[in-house]
Write a structure and sequence with these properties.
Blueprint (H helix, E strand, L loop, with lengths): L1 H41 L8 H5 L7 E4 L5 E5 L3 E2 L9 H11 L11 H9 L10 H10 L7 H21 L2 H11 L6 E2 L1 H9 L8 H12 L10 H17 L5 H8 L18 H17 L16 E4 L3 H25 L13 H13 L2 H8 L4 H7 L4 E5 L6 E5 L1 H9 L2 E8 L6 E5 L17 E2 L5 H12 L6 E4 L26 E4 H6 L3 H11 L1 H10 L18 E2 L1 H12 L3 E3 L4 E5 L5 E3 L5 E3 L3 H17 L29 E6 L6 E7 L2 E9 L9 H4 L1 H4 L1 H13 L45
Parallel strand pairs: 1-5, 3-4
Antiparallel strand pairs: 1-2, 5-15, 6-7, 8-9, 8-20, 10-13, 11-12, 14-17, 15-16, 18-19, 19-20
């Protein structure tokens, strides 16, 4: 018995010993784990996000450029990420995401205990344990994981801690939205918003169930399940997501089978600074924002970063009008370019006309020095002779054509001459009453031609300058559109108005019409009348008025400016003409409505700038003069069924407009520049057409004049704008001032309808 008792006592003692040891190990382990968690939360194993970090995670958001009608025109980014609210996410995508990535998302508080135990007991072979909140924590504060097990364990614990803090800080819907905003889908698309645009060219709210399933499948591994590189794998992964949605009773089995039968259909569009809509305007805006951030600081005094601060820049550009303008420019320039090639067919020095070999060499050398190739070789310390020699070696390259990009082989020197052939264009459209710019087309293709012919390039304006002379005459000399003046030989002698030799302007058709009204003179763009008017008013008075109209370029104080020997930008010309349409009040062109930070707070709102230039009566008198151009002058093509010379290059012709239109064509030195300024009561649009080099031009006036080169762009653009009734472009009369003191309604004999096509030229002798 004693032996039995001793054995039992010893056994009890052993059990108690092991019990104590177990609980001691358990307590120490628990304390160790708790200490581990505590130390991790204190940041002893690496920095942890602060409360402020959780409140404002560094989400590296792209700045969005938004049109007046709510369309994202483009973005400035280093990482193409746009922020969505939960309400912006389609329900089918949220359902697919929760069903696939975290079925108990709405039940846990950041850590899924059941999933964690399952993963631990199966050593990760039966699915991972990361919740959506943990994945968000990893995306925001950790990024990639470590391959070293102890470090990976530390990292996982830190993710748990951050996940719990995120759950305390944000609602479930906010966490879902944040996760959808930070995931990298590849091809520079970060977040669902960018991914939807990149892969499907859609806003997220327009995604179909199968498209949402594709994106959710990419959350698993966007590199592996990339629709461009692995369509089979993506289709299989999409079908898995659809299966999970059935399992969660979010869709039916029949719906799953229907979507599984669909192929992977993409509408891939890589978002780029050089492609998309309003590219020239976006670059102009980017340059403006560089100055803006230098002058406008954050509340803490630091600088805004347009590439990561998620600003929203609301512009005055209307995406519909911008699209119509780009379509009009592209359609007409492609059409006119064909004629330019025909025109240059037998020109051995094409596209240059009537210049010496020395002048040609100078142009080509300057183009070489402005090229990327020259800059790169200079950085490599190559000699100038070596660089020039490299321009004569054939190389493979991709070039722009109006039928799309084309791979070819040519020397860089030949490519320079090839690109010199292309006709360029600039178009700007603006509301005269508000100064709001609605469309901005700086060229034919920003990827290949970065020079902006709206805000950057000032070109000679030809006859489009004449209304400034007439406006000065009406103001200074109390003349009216109905006053008569003699169209006859006229000379300004040496010494008068600073001329250094006798100046005798002549009309383009070499004939004189005798007595004409001012309205008839401007409609026919008679040079002698413009010269007589500037002689009477003085060049100084014309220059002064032109400056008040917002023209910023230097204007020579010479009588020859009456014929348009002045370089002005399209932007300034549109603003100046808008003053006439706005009853004599100049309004500075405005392209911004407001700027918001990523939280939606307005941080900048521009103050409109305006000043009085002319009284209402004078402004209306100029409008009536300009209406004469489209009633009987070179702009009559907008109304007639027969267009005259150059019919086959009348893009969008016939226009057959019947509403009031004020406008003016212009053609400059040897057809180097073609212009048309067109106005209706609530929209003023200016169009310029010409080659990059002034010596590259049409040989004749038939196609080189503004009525053929530029006016068709305006006509085609306005046809599109009028067809879109939502734009509400006016077809009404221009507002007539009450008690008008200037006679504007002139008696005219009934006219015989004939071809009124005018030819234009701007030299010291010719201009129309």
């Amino acid at each position: 018995m004693a032996t039995k008792k001793n054995n039992q006592s010893k056994s009890d003692k052993d059990i108690n010993y092991y019990k104590k040891k177990f609980w001691r190990v358990f307590a120490y382990s628990l304390l160790g784990v708790l200490a581990f968690f505590l130390f991790a939360s204190w940041g002893l194993f690496g920095a942890m996000p602060s409360f402020e970090d959780l409140e404002n995670p560094d989400s590296n958001l792209a700045t969005e450029i938004i049109s007046s009608d709510g369309v994202v025109l483009g973005k400035y980014f280093k990482t193409n990420r746009s922020q969505l609210k939960y309400s912006d996410l389609p329900k089918n995508l949220v359902d697919a995401l929760v069903a696939t990535e975290d079925a108990r998302f709405y039940e846990h508080s950041g850590i899924d205990g059941r999933g964690t135990l399952r993963a631990a007991f199966s050593l990760g072979t039966n699915g991972g344990a990361s919740t959506l909140t943990q994945q968000l924590a990893k995306q925001l504060f950790h990024k990639g994981g470590s391959s070293f097990l102890p470090f990976r364990i530390v990292q996982k614990i830190k993710e748990w801690i951050i996940a719990i803090r995120l759950e305390r800080q944000y609602t479930k819907n906010e966490i879902l939205a944040m996760y959808c905003n930070v995931y990298d889908f590849g091809n520079y698309a970060v977040g669902v918003s960018s991914a939807a645009q990149t892969y499907f060219s859609k806003d997220p709210k327009d995604l179909t169930i199968d498209e949402s399933a594709i994106l959710v499948g990419m959350f698993n591994n966007s590199s592996l399940y990339n629709p461009l590189r692995n369509p089979v794998g993506v289709k299989n992964r999409r079908d898995v997501v659809l299966g999970q949605m059935v399992k969660a009773k979010m869709i039916t089995e029949s719906q799953k089978e229907k979507y599984k039968a669909l192929p992977i259909t993409l509408k891939f569009k890589l978002e780029s600074h050089r492609e998309g809509i309003a590219t020239y305007f976006r670059e102009y805006l980017r340059d403006y924002m560089k100055k803006w951030v230098a002058e406008n600081k954050k509340p803490d005094g630091s600088d805004y970063d347009i590439y990561k601060d998620g600003l929203k820049i609301y512009t005055t550009i209307d995406s519909r009008m911008q699209t119509y303008a780009e379509e009009a420019v592209a359609a007409h320039m492609q059409n006119l370019q064909q004629q330019f090639y025909i025109d240059q067919k037998n020109n051995k020095n094409a596209p240059f006309v009537n210049i010496t070999q020395a002048e040609t060499d100078r142009i080509m050398m300057q183009a070489m020095k402005n090229s990327v190739r020259w800059a790169q070789m200079k950085e490599m310390d190559k000699s100038e002779d070596d660089i020039i020699a490299s321009f004569k070696v054939k190389t493979k390259m991709r070039v722009f054509t109006w039928k799309g990009e084309r791979d070819t082989t040519m020397t860089p020197m030949d490519s320079i001459r090839y690109y010199k052939h292309f006709l360029q264009s600039g178009l700007m459209s603006m509301e005269p009453q508000t100064g709001a710019i609605k469309a901005w087309v700086g060229g034919i293709n920003y990827k290949y031609f970065q020079y902006d012919h709206v805000g950057q390039g000032a070109r000679q304006v030809g006859s489009t300058f004449k209304p400034f002379v007439y406006a000065t005459a009406i103001e200074e000399l109390n003349m009216s559109p109905c006053d008569s003046i003699l169209d006859g030989p006229f000379m300004i002698h040496k010494g008068r108005h600073h001329v250094t030799e006798d100046w005798e302007p002549r009309n383009s058709d070499y004939r004189y019409r005798g007595m004409v009204t001012l309205k008839q003179a401007l409609a026919a763009s008679i040079n002698t009348v413009s010269a007589k008017l500037i002689d009477r008013t003085s060049p100084e008075a014309v220059v002064e008025l032109t400056k008040k109209l917002g023209v910023k370029t230097e204007i020579p104080v010479q009588p020859s400016i009456a014929l348009g020997a002045v370089d002005i930008t399209v932007e300034d010309m549109v603003a100046a003409y808008s003053t006439f349409a706005n009853q004599g009040v100049y309004v500075k062109p405005q392209f911004l409505s407001r700027i918001e930070n990523k939280s939606g707070e307005v941080i900048y709102e521009p103050i409109p700038e305006s000043h009085d230039v002319l009284n209402k009566d004078i402004a209306f008198a100029v409008i009536k003069l300009l209406q004469g151009v489209t009633e009987s002058g070179s702009g009559v093509r907008l109304r007639t069924q027969g267009g005259g010379s150059g019919d086959n290059r009348w893009t969008g012709y016939p226009y057959m407009f019947t509403n009031p239109i004020a406008g003016k064509t212009g053609t400059t030195q040897n057809q180097s520049d073609g212009w048309f300024m067109g106005m209706v009561p609530n929209l003023v649009t200016g169009v310029w057409v010409g080659c990059e080099d002034r010596s590259a031009r049409f040989k004749s006036l038939t196609y080189g004049q503004g009525a053929t080169a530029a006016l068709p762009v305006w006509g085609y653009y306005m046809k599109k704008c009028y067809a879109d009734k939502d734009l509400q472009i006016s077809k009404s009369e221009f507002e007539r001032p009450a008690n008008l003191s200037i006679k504007v309604d002139c008696y005219q004999r009934p006219a015989i309808v004939k071809d009124t096509t005018q030819t234009e030229q701007n030299t010291d002798e010719f201009e129309l």
